[in-house]
Amino acid sequence: MRIHHIGYLVKNIAKARGPFEELGYEAEGEVVYDPLRDIDILFMVNGDYRIELVQPKSPESVVANTLKKIGNSPYHICYYCDDISKAQIELHEKGYYPLGDIEPAVAIGGRKVCFMLNPAIGMIELVEET
Ligand code: NI
Fold first, then answer.
1. How far is the centre of ligand 1, averaged over its atoms, from the C-alpha of 41 (Å)?
2. Is 3-128 a domain of CATH 3.10.180.10?
3. I want to staple 113 with a disulfide (CB 3.0 to 4.6 A). Which of 27, 67, 100, 105 is the partner?
4. Could you tell me the pTM of the whole model?
5. SS3 20
6. Closest CA to 70 of 122, 9, 123
């Protein structure tokens, strides 16, 4: 499956942005607030690679505990799929467990995304390519 982005947790996007720019990344759009997940998101691109900076906005955010545990770190890889419901079922048959529902991601133009967990590799994200 082709990769859309690597999700990267940071405590503070405003502070993380400069160092990533120094490493050759350029912001793709502006910081977007995702109210479903209570996070700020900024996509940055470096050649063929896209990272998604994710900053939890409150202790109740879905990723606040993960950030506390692992600090500023990459934490998921997001893969393209054609039909997200179909991809979710196929991966479930291969041993991935759905983490929550299929939901729109405001930071990717409202495209449908979902997260799944594989016991051997951890969390992945799927994004529908439309
Ligand atoms: Ni992501």
1. 9
2. yes
3. 105
4. 0.94
5. helix
6. 9
